[in-house]
Amino acid sequence: MRIVLTSLAVLALVACNKTADTTVENVAEENMAMDANAMDANSMAMPAAFQINETTWEFTDEGKATTETIDASGNFVAWSGDEHIDHGTAVMKDGKACFTSAMDKEGEVCWTAQPTEIGQSMETTSDKGEKLTVKRVAYMPVPDKVKP
Question: pLDDT per position in the chain (148 positions), as tens?
């Protein structure tokens, strides 16, 4: 009788162990499948497009040290010291920063753009071939004294 009970206990343990191994194998297979899906999703992820909204830039234009801020809505204001220089709208199109001044009839002027961190500079070129070096600085709202 003792042998029968011991045998049943051993069989029960073996049966439990077999199920556990199967479960571990199933979980491992599911994990590998999820890892493969995650790798596929990561390989298809596209970097976010560079945006100019809520950025501020410094540059020298016609001998004037100029600051330009583009707000969250895409409105820009450029100023030098206490002097209002320009204002209008700015949008990104085909990887270029395009500005439309509200102060002239020139229309939209687009400049090359690339992701630029605060404190970094880049050289940008307009569609007309004009070159300008701009430096990105920490975002600042337009001072009241130069608002349009």
Answer: 444 333 444 444 444 454 444 455 554 555 555 555 544 444 445 456 789 999 999 999 989 999 999 999 999 999 999 999 999 999 999 999 999 999 999 999 999 999 999 999 999 999 999 999 999 999 999 999 999 9
> Among 96, 106, 101, which Cα is nearest to 127's?
96
Contact 10, 18 (CB under 8 A): no
Q: How many helices (H) and strands (E) does the chain have?
A: 1, 8
Gap between the terminal Cα atoms of the chain: 100
Half-sphere exposure of 48 (CA within 13 A, CB side): 3
Considering just the CA atoms, what is the radius of gyration of the chain in Å? 31
Token readout for 131 is 């070159």
